[in-house]
Write a structure and sequence with these properties.
The chain is α/β, with parallel strands linked by helices and 383 residues long. The protein is built from 15 helices and 7 strands. A hairpin with a 2-residue loop joins strand 1 and strand 2. Belongs to the transposase mutator family.
Length: 383
């Protein structure tokens, strides 16, 4: 049946007056373009033959419909629409990954997709579509590393994790490395049920299998046995205990009326400016400080322990970098980013699910925030 131009215009206008009509018109146009594209392909390639159609679901912009993708006998023909569909699927997978790592639950993501694509995704479908992203994150976490790091910051954060029928807080170990060019990168995110020096020793040694040969300085908290773990894995590395942890613990012990004086003395005990103070002299001042305050607070007497000279390693380095190497603040900030992602969730179904979320945050920070080079850090200034 032949239609006049006015009849065609009236037909199109009627279809455009409703959402379902618009969707049907789009479907007809896409199918027609693909079929015409195949005809041109067959004409250009002698010996090729048409071979029917295969169905393909298209979703986007609040609509969903079935397309008929034309095929050829050899299977070498791919219409332009397939490239568009593939791009759309990769974009949708990226969107699901971004929403999931931003803290949205699988149910919330399904509702968002329903508004965008006109199709509701169940929790199981969201989880399945994110599997590709999980594989990429796990591969990134196991990548080869640089042979040399100026400094490595180590710390663990804790997250509720389900194992079989019980839920408990488990440790997730993170290492943040400072490269000779002044950029930073997250080296690992690893789960262990608890935090301990033996686990840290194992993870530090694991860095060697991924290409790390030398670390100039390792910064950590004062976990019992951490010195032996570091010495076993990287015996040539200097070790700095976190000064911020030390100050925080000292202030938690004293009464409210002594906090102001204690804060002032702690600032003098751990100077940033170069006043010619060596680690040994600074440790001697710490012993005097411990003896004096120990008369009022007996717990301060333990500060004279020889291991506490490790709080003053930063004095061996130039003044301009001391504030950035005398504590684990950088990796603690990363831990806070982890917690923001985990906050909207309860106990995650497995340790692998937690590692995936934390690894996603770590990769984003590495590729964006940590990629900026810090001008004060150069290979000559950290030695």
């Amino acid at each position: 049946m032949e239609l006049t131009t006015s009849q065609k215009s009236a037909f199109i206008s009627e279809m455009l007056s409703s959402e379902s009509g618009i969707n049907e018109l789009i479907r007809i146009l896409l199918n027609t373009f693909s079929k015409q594209e195949r005809s041109l392909f067959v004409q250009e390639h002698k010996g090729e033959q048409c071979n029917g159609f295969r169905p393909r679901r298209w979703r986007g912009y609040g609509c969903s419909f079935e397309l008929r993708i034309p095929r050829t006998r050899s299977g070498s023909f791919e219409p332009l629409i397939l490239g568009i569909l593939s791009h759309q699927e990769s974009e949708r997978a990226l969107l699901l990954h971004e929403l999931y790592t931003r803290g949205l639950s699988c149910e919330d993501i399904g509702a968002v997709c329903e508004r965008l694509y006109g199709h509701h995704y169940s929790k199981q479908q969201v989880s399945f579509l994110s599997n590709t992203s999980k594989a990429e994150i796990y591969k990134w976490l196991e990548r080869q590393l640089s042979p040399h790091y100026l400094a490595v910051y180590i710390d663990a954060t804790f997250a509720f994790t389900r194992r079989e029928d019980s839920v408990s807080k488990e440790a997730y170990y993170t290492m943040l490395g400072l490269l000779p060019d002044g950029s930073r990168e997250v080296l690992c995110v690893v789960n262990h049920p608890t935090e301990g020096a033996l686990n840290w020793e194992m993870e530090l040694k694991a860095l060697k299998t991924r290409g790390v040969e030398r670390i100039d300085l390792i910064i950590s908290d004062a976990l019992q046995g951490i010195e032996r773990a570091i010495c076993s894995a990287f015996p040539q590395s200097a070790h700095q205990l976190c000064v911020v942890h030390f100050k925080r613990q000292a202030l938690n012990v004293v009464s409210k009326r002594d906090k102001a004086q204690m804060t002032q003395e702690l600032d003098e005990l751990f100077p940033i400016r170069d006043i010619g103070l060596t680690p040994i002299k600074a440790f001697e001042k710490l012993c005097t400080f411990a003896e004096r305050w120990g008369k009022s607070y007996r717990s301060f007497l333990s500060l004279s322990s020889p291991r506490n000279i490790g709080y003053f390693t930063y004095l061996r380095f130039p003044e301009e970098v001391r504030r950035m190497i005398y504590s684990t603040t950088w990796v603690e900030r990363l831990n806070r980013s982890y917690k923001r992602t985990l906050r909207m969730r309860g106990a995650l179904p497995s340790a692998g699910a937690v590692v995936f979320l934390l690894g996603s945050v770590a990769r984003e920070m590495t590729e964006r925030t940590y990629a900026r080079r810090l001008p004060y850090f150069q290979e000559r200034s950290i030695k």
